[in-house]
Amino acid sequence: MKKYISFFKIRFINGLQYRVAAYAGIATQIAWGFMHILIFKAFYKGDPHSFPMEFSQLSSYIWLQQAFLALFMSWYFDNDIFMTITSGNIAYELSRPMDLYSMWFTKNLAVRLSRAVLRCLPVLLVALLLPEPYGIAPPVSLFGFFMFIITMVLAFLCVVAFSMFIYIIVFYTLSPMGVRVVATSLIEFLTGSIIPLPFFPKKLMKIVSLTPFASMQNLPFRIYSGNIAGREMLFGVLLQLFWVIILILSGRLWMARALKKVVVQGG
Amino acid sequence: MKLYFRYFSIHIKSQMQYKTSFFLTLTGQFLTSFSAFLSIYFLMSRFHQVQNFTYNEVLLCFATVLMAFSLAECFARGFDTFSTMIGNGEFDRIMVRPRNEIFQVLASRIDFSRIGRLIQAIIIFIYAIPASRITWTFDKILTLILMIIGGVVIFSGLFFSLCGTMLFHNRRA
Hints:
The complex is a heterodimer. Chain A is mainly alpha-helical. Chain A has one domain. In chain A, 73% of the residues lie in helices and 0% in strands. By secondary structure, chain B is mainly alpha-helical. Chain B has one domain (2-170). Chain B contains eight helices and two strands. Chain B has a two-stranded antiparallel sheet with strand order 1-2. The model of chain B has no long low-confidence stretch (mean pLDDT 82). Chain A binds chain B through residues 20, 42-43, 45-47, 50, 52, 175, 177-178, 180-182, 184-186, 188-189, 194-195, 199-201, and chain B through 21, 24-25, 27-29, 31-32, 34-36, 38-39, 42-43, 45-51, 170.
């Protein structure tokens, strides 16, 4: 366990070095957040009754999404890992006295977390200063906020566990291009990062909310604004826990199988 | 211009070497913008109109932007690799050659897998142009064509200025 923690530390500190990229990211996220809110504002003006959630809840959702983008972004994959697989350097990784799955898992956690830490505060600050329905609202209750933190952690684990599948698939396809594009667009859409899940048609939303995708950013952001509460929230958390365990276990099993037949490229 | 067609045919030939990968990427491109289309569909089927724009009119705008963007990405993405070109010294080789530098960078990459998006834009156009019930006079057709051309020029200009000017100063994107 100790070696993974120190590995995490190295990666985390390494990630904190890219300050200029973070400033650019902050500017983008703030602009993006305004744009999204303006789009939904246009819809809200036309027909406020068809809106599936309150406008202030939507604003909180969008700002949280922008602030913690780095935790849940679907298009981030570690190019180093793809390179190790395709170039054959995987042989070195395998000869280390570490578990490959845990190592890649911690690496992904560290990179995403370090990016989020650099970016989230300024975005949240701007969102807090905005007037009532457009900014981020304070949490509805102390318990809700507590649940928000817990579901954030679980959602984060869920995203990384899911992205591990993509790395494993590359063991078979050897080219990350195709899998990556398909996976990205699928996750992007089904987790509600283009439009929040409540805006989906009812039937589709029921199906999607049972999949692991709904356990990613959808759940914590909606718990924060009070859009999900009570029994629905408890059910959501249990489902989330279930998916995290299933995803990690099946990922480990699959990786063990893939490693049995691994082909080392090059020489 | 003749040189550009040479580059063009070389790019087609080289991308056709990996046919499966090419078609997978093409499908991927199609899917990426398809999720954007689905979002519009879901939103419009819930709200029916946005600021007096109907669903079909929104689709028409979407297809225009999508077409302009995919054309720009297809032909102007050479600037994307500009950072690596400067980094690994490839750009020095380009400056030695007796041809325009911008032209060479531009022609260094033509990405045909963006056709996946282009196809989608065309399909939406085929649906939305009759469905929007616009009476197509000459000036309206001209406007639409100019919208697409203008879009391509703007997006290409953005790729150029972003990747080009910034990189000379930062060397990293």
